[in-house]
Amino acid sequence: MISCYQARRQRLRDTLCQGGAALLFSGEEIPLGVDMTYPFSVDRNFFYLTGLRLPGAAVLLSPDGEKLLLPTPDPRREIYEGPQMTPEEMAAAAGFAWADCAVGLDPLDVLPQAGTVYLDGKRPPTAGYHSPAARLAEQLREAGREVADVYPLVYALRRVKDAGEIEKLRRAVDVVDESLRYMAAHCRPGMTEGQYKATFEYAMAMRGSRPSFPSIVAAGKNSVYLHYEGERGVVRPGELLLLDVGAYVEHYASDISRTFPVGGFTPRQKAIYNLVYDVTRLVLEHMQPYHRYQEHVDAMCAYFSKYLQKLHIADTEPEQERFLRSLSRGCCHHMGLDAHDGYAPPEEILLPGMVFTNEPGVYLPAEGIGVRIEEDLLITETGNELLSAAIPAAPQDAAAFLG
């Protein structure tokens, strides 16, 4: 039986230009200090095509077939890290015949001598570090070879999830739901943002998961910063607590935001919260199969514009223009192997199997009020399914969540 990884590789091969070959690297371990490395994070496109999570590997797709390039086994890893998969086991897990594998081989030795070489150009060279793909691209161009970017081709495949991927995303959402409920039951006003965060992440770890991005726990005036990184703020009654969190389950990521009042909403907080909540439901009406992505952007901007002056969110025309301009990319992004798995162009047609976030927000620094509600939704054949529906979001449920 053909594995999902074999099927994905074949689909990618079918999109390459005639005679073209694609080479995708798993990534490298980056040194940290004298004898340590930063935690290794496998290249998502390599993982999508192989299901493997090891450094120093690559996969080649060419007119002649496919080849898995594996690093030479290092006996020291057995000593320090425990049992390792053998090359034969890795090949079987990725759906390769052993005859289509090579150990310790330089990728240049297996590249076809002619034709376009597709490399991942999503990660350009950065100061102090060139990725394996960037280094090889330089070599090939110096030799007069034509190099193209394979990232858009792989990403086009990744946008629509199969049943196995959707199940992992469901579980990643469930982990967040359960961990938020554990946090709410064990944390109280007077504790710091860091203590709330630690409690949430403890519950996640107890479920065999880890954050899919650095958890954001922002209390009071800190809730207006979209990617807040602090942990020392105190969670106080009368303020809002904004959480932007996600979980990894078998390398698939959820991405969820909730804003909870500490001790109940003030009238002003409730008015802003109700607006944001209503927009999330409006977005659901437009994130429908075979609709254009831009539809939800237009509807959201039109809805917000009716309330900007009424709720004193933006009183002047320039303020209103800035607010609406901030929504130009919409409030959704693809979700999958990364929490931010890519942004849809305005004309993208939504297809069954795509998974998006839905995260409108209003941020008022002068008032110390930031409200974001972020849902995870699956586009289906008949509409959409709110994967995060069990996590309290309706105003009455949010008001009661922290007790």
How many β-strands, per DSSP? 19
> According to CATH, what is the class of the largest domain?
Alpha Beta
Indicate the low-confidence ranges by residue numbers.
none
Oligomer status: single chain
Give the structural class.
alpha+beta
- The first-to-last residue Cα distance is 52 Å
Q: What global shape is seen?
A: globular
Please give the count of helices.
12
Verbal overview:
Helix content is 34%, strand content 18%. It has helices at residues 4-15, 44-50, 75-81, 87-94, 132-142, 151-158, 163-186, 193-206, 267-286, 294-305, 317-325, 395-401, and strands at residues 21-25, 31-32, 36-37, 58-62, 65-70, 101-103, 117-119, 147-149, 210-211, 216-219, 240-245, 247-249, 252-253, 256-261, 355-358, 361-364, 369-372, 375-379, 384-386. Helix 7 crosses helix 8 (193-206) and helix 9 (267-286) runs antiparallel to helix 10 (294-305). The model has no long low-confidence stretch (mean pLDDT 95). It is globular, with a radius of gyration of 24 Å. With 403 residues, the chain is α+β, with helices and mostly antiparallel strands. The longest helix is centred in the middle third of the chain and has 24 residues, at 163-186. A hairpin with a 3-residue loop joins strand 2 (31-32) and strand 3. The strands form 6 sheets. A 6-stranded mixed beta sheet has the order 6-5-4-1-7-8, sandwiched between helices. It has 2 domains: 4-158, Creatinase/prolidase N-terminal domain (Creatine Amidinohydrolase, Chain A, domain 1, 3-Layer(aba) Sandwich), CATH 3.40.350.10; 163-401, Creatinase/methionine aminopeptidase superfamily (Creatine Amidinohydrolase, Alpha-Beta Complex), CATH 3.90.230.
